Amino acid sequence: MEPSEKLILSSLYVSQIGGIDLIELISKKTSLTLDEINSKIDNLIKNQLINKDRTTLTELGRNSLRIVLAGGVFDIIHPGHIHTLNAAKALGDVLVVVVATDNTAVKMKKRRPLHSQEQRQELVKSLSMVDLCLIGQEDDIFKTVNHVRPQIIALGYDQIHQEKFIVDGCKKIDLDAIVARLQSPIPESSSSKIEKEYGEAIHGI
Question: Fewest CB within 10 angstroms: 12, 53, 130, 173, which?
Answer without folding.
Answer: 53
